[in-house]
Design a protein that fits this description.
seven-stranded parallel β-sheet, alpha/beta, binds nicotinamide-adenine-dinucleotide, 339 residues, three-stranded mixed β-sheet, binds 2'deoxy-thymidine-5'-diphospho-alpha-D-glucose
């Protein structure tokens, strides 16, 4: 597994994965394919930009000629597909780009991989394909797929394509499904970086509905370690769930963030609930532990403190990302402009 084609490597998880690979495998070679949407940022990889083991190719995973060109220029051992439209709220505003990248893009990668006889294909998927839990229970790999949002419906469609290629063509595909990631370089449309960056500016924190919804938080590096384990030791055709065993209500998390930042609870605003808002996600990680020898390692309180410190130390990154089109999105989503 020496040469990896990583798609979406300029986003949050992809950039953390590339850095982690370069740190942990001296011989690895990475081709990073990213079209640089609003969420893709070359700055996320500035610490490794001079590393000769990593090459960037700007392009769209939906462009078959482009992907064929990349695959014919270098012999690739495996593809790891992170590229996606990833934000639920944006999929509610407009599902078009989600259908295109998350479904058509996956189909293009699958066909191009088959043609190039790539040995391994890993689809980075999400626990959101399972839908919503009540206050009890956990998602296993056997939980029926029941997506609620246009985002998760498109991720589910992609998973079904991968599964169908495995069954129909004997394709060497593996699917991983992970819970909510947090850590450095996350785009501040997602809860944790949004609330940290708003609180730092004394902007309101928009909590959807009552804030009783529960998410299971996992540090991005634990997710990256899981993807690596599945890529190397997973079985083709199989699904592996990853989670952080750190379930919190959104209100609990919001209060922790405010306390850590020394900001008042009066910044909290309960706003209209997200349409189709899944109540709870929680993951049974027994299969990944048993078959991949994987376990989440980062303790949530430690990981959250390090993440807050990262945002405090990288205010220039935050400011740049929160300028321009982000401000228009914010106004459309939250009904007022950022100060
Ligand atoms: P992100 O939005 O931060 O990054 C997505 C990246 O994909 C960006 O760099 C973007 O430019 C690129 N991209 C988008 N469309 C593309 C296209 N057509 N061609 C090439 N590149 C394209 O997303 P993320 O949070 O890093 O998520 C990465 C993957 O992990 C996604 O597939 C997502 O569904 C999955 N996932 C995310 C989480 C999470 O909590 N963030 C949890 C589980 C699974
Ligand atoms: O579970 C994995 C998924 O986690 C990934 O597949 C997605 O790509 C990723 O975006 C994330 O989805 P969520 O919708 O759970 O994450 P988000 O950060 O958008 O929201 C987390 C919770 O916080 C959710 O219950 C909605 C709530 N929320 C979110 C925002 C942006 C608010 O209350 N207010 C907000 O402004």
């Amino acid at each position: 597994m020496k040469t990896l084609l990583v798609t979406g490597g300029c986003g949050f998880i992809g950039s953390n994965f590339i850095r982690w690979q370069l740190e942990n495998y001296p011989d690895v070679e990475i081709i990073n394919v990213d079209v640089l949407t609003y969420a893709g940022n070359l700055e996320n990889l500035s610490s490794v930009e001079d590393d000769p083991r990593c090459r960037f190719e700007k392009g769209d995973i939906c462009d078959r000629a482009f992907i064929d060109g990349v695959l014919s220029s270098t012999s690739v051992d495996a593809i790891v597909n992170f590229a996606a439209e990833s934000h639920v709220d944006r999929s509610i505003l407009d599902s078009g780009p989600f259908v295109q990248t998350n479904i058509v893009g996956t189909q293009v990668l699958l066909d191009a991989s088959r043609q190039a006889n790539v040995e391994r294909y890993l689809q980075v998927s999400t626990d959101e394909v399972y839908g919503s839990l009540g206050s009890e229970g956990f998602f296993t790999e056997e939980t029926p797929l029941d997506p609620s949002s246009p985002y998760s419906a498109c991720k589910t469609s992609a998973d079904l394509l991968v599964q169908a290629y495995c069954r129909t063509h004997g394709f060497p595909g593996i699917i991983t499904r992970c819970s909510n990631n947090y850590g450095p370089y996350q785009f501040p449309e997602k809860l944790i970086p949004l609330f940290i960056s708003n609180a730092l500016k004394d902007e309101a924190l928009p909590v959807y509905g009552t804030g009783e919804n529960v998410r299971d938080w996992i540090h991005v590096i634990d997710h990256c370690r899981g993807i690596d384990a599945a890529l190397r030791d997973g079985k083709p055709g199989e699904v592996y769930n990853f989670g952080g065993h750190a379930e919190l209500t959104n209100m609990d998390l919001t209060l922790r963030l405010l306390r850590a930042l020394g900001k008042p609870e009066t910044l909290i605003r309960h706003v209209e609930d997200r349409a189709g808002h899944d109540f709870r996600y929680a993951i049974d990680t027994a299969k990944a532990e048993r078959e991949l020898g994987w376990k989440p390692q980062v303790v949530f309180n430690t990981g959250l403190k390090e993440t807050i410190d990262w945002y405090l130390s990288n205010t220039t990154w935050v400011e740049r990302v929160r300028s321009g089109a982000y401000r228009d999105y914010y106004e459309t989503q939250y009904g007022h402009r950022l100060a």
